[in-house]
Each structure stands twice: as structure tokens, then as C-alpha cells.
Please model this.
Amino acid sequence: MMSHKNLSADKSILLVIDIQDNLSPAISEFSDLLQWSIKIAKVSAIFKIPSIVTEQYPQGLGSTNRRLKDALLNAQSIEKTHFSACNEPTFNATFKQLTRTQVIVIGTESHVCVLQTCLDLIAQGIEVYVAADAVGSQDPEHKSLALMQLQQAGAIITSVESIIFQWTKNAASPEFKAVLSIIK
Model:
């Protein structure tokens, strides 16, 4: 089993999977998911953490939520049709260029695109951290089962605040005041 370390901003990538406007009405507790996603996006920008945004068939499902996308720093967007982003050549090329070893995952749907992408990343030896409060499915039970399966596969299931505080490390850091204004 993979050995996970404490998260580090300089080793992290934020992966935003399919948080698209046309999907949002179907996702259970979407407003909470979006609120947490925007918080982690804003903090990732403070720490200059690169982000990749995937969009499942955007012609039909729409674009990534604008408020979320605006909160990200230099997000690289990738259109996809595969459920696992790892089956998209553009994703793989983009991911490899970033040379980071820790991936923080947020998005929809937990039991489809999030699950399959995370399983493929774990199989590649990547440390995967899933923010449980920033992933969702239409059926909460499907989300719960996906999170259990991911944990059994080696992913760390955590929360947005835990991730943010791991990135921040120190209340005396120059970033802490900005981080605190976002999470409170």
C-alpha cells in the first residue's frame, strides 16, 4: 500500500472534475459542494497550486461553474468524453508536465468520473486526496459507496479545511491571514 505524506502545496495539483452548470441541478447538495470547491480554489491560488479542470462533454453539459473557474489560478481546462480523465491524452500530457506527486480531487460525479479518474491515478502511483465535502453524486448513497471504494483502493478521504490547513502549515505564515478570511 502507498505511503501518504502530509500534504505540501509545492507537491500538490488541484484536480476539478466536471463541476459543470448543466449537471448542478441533479447533484445532491450541490450548493455545499460548490461553496467548498470555491474555497479550496481560492486557497490554491494563494499558494500558486496548479489546477486542471475537466469538462465532460461540455457541448451538452455546459461549462465549469464560472464562480469556481474565476477562483482558480491559471487553470488548464480539458474537454473529455471518457469517464476517467486518465484516458484522455490531453489530460495525461498536461498532468505529466506539472511534475507533482499529490493530487487533490474535487468534482462530480463521485461514483463515475471522480471514482474512475482516482483509481487510474492511484494505479500510476500518485497520492490521491479526495475532499469528501467537495465531491458529489445525484444519489448520496452512490457518493458514500464511491468514497469507501476509493479509501479501500488507497486514496485519502479528507475535507477541504483539512487540506487547506495542511497546505498552510503555520498560523504565523504570511498566507494564513488570507486563508483564514476565506475559510471563516
